[in-house]
């Protein structure tokens, strides 16, 4: 995806353009100026995956004009330039969202492994280096139970029976369902608000009745989850944040 900022340009003298890298979110990004024969406008772009800032404009743009334009664009750049990804780990003292509540991990050194949830504290007993793995295993077990409980109530309403519920870690989908009635969920839904994971559960359950995304399918989803559009939107806008947990 390319984002762009532009400014109409007044003609100046031809100059050589070498710009120092620009610091955004504490990271240096090279600035490239490319002159275009017929251009009369300064444009600034970056791409989400690109690692540089590209300015295009007239051949005779003055360095000072480009610098002034860059300066003017700084606020815009800082607002819209993607933040570098900061991954989060399930380690001691970290608070993470879990099925609609915040849980804080308290590690206790121990030779044998165990986990105890006490209100919003998750006591994790194990060698320190095993914390991450143990918490992840616990999240997956709890989340499977959570989805099973939803289906205990919701599946009879649709008169369907999922044959198996499993968790995985797909990159691009939150849930799936096959013709044998096996429903898979991303374990990362445990980190989303409850309404959101509930919607995904309902979405997949409805596929046992309608193996498509027809109007009839969405009507069925709506009958069990009236505000489903809000939760779809949440996943589109904020779903990426669930993938920052490692
Ligand atoms: Zn679907």
Automatic annotation (TrEMBL):
Gene3D superfamilies: Metalloproteases ('zincins'), catalytic domain (3.30.2010.10). InterPro entries: UTP_pyrophosphatase-like, YgjP-like_metallopeptidase. Pfam families: YgjP-like. Residues 41-237 form the YgjP-like metallopeptidase domain. It comes from the Bacteria. Coiled coil: none annotated. This is WLM domain protein.
């Amino acid at each position: 995806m390319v984002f762009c900022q532009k400014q109409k340009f007044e003609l100046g003298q031809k100059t050589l353009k070498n710009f120092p890298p620009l610091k955004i979110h504490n990271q240096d990004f090279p600035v490239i100026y490319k002159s275009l024969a017929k251009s009369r406008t300064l444009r600034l772009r970056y791409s989400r995956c690109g690692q540089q800032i590209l300015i295009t404009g007239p051949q005779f743009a003055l360095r000072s004009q480009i610098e002034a334009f860059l300066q003017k664009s700084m606020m815009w750049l800082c607002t819209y330039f993607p933040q570098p990804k900061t991954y989060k780990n399930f380690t001691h003292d970290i608070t993470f969202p879990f099925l609609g509540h915040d849980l804080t991990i308290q590690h206790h050194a121990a030779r044998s492994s165990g986990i105890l949830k006490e209100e919003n504290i998750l006591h994790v007993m194990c060698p320190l280096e095993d914390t991450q793995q143990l918490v992840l295993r616990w999240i997956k077990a709890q989340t499977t139970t959570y989805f099973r409980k939803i289906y205990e109530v919701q599946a009879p309403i649709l008169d369907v029976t999922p044959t198996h519920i499993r968790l995985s870690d797909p990159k691009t989908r939150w849930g799936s369902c096959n013709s044998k009635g096996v429903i898979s969920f991303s374990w990362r839904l445990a980190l989303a608000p409850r309404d959101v994971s509930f919607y995904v559960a309902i979405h997949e359950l409805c596929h046992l009745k309608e193996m498509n995304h027809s109007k009839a399918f969405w009507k069925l989803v709506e009958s069990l989850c009236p505000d489903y559009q809000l939760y779809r939107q949440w996943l589109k806008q904020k779903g990426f944040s669930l993938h920052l947990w490692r």
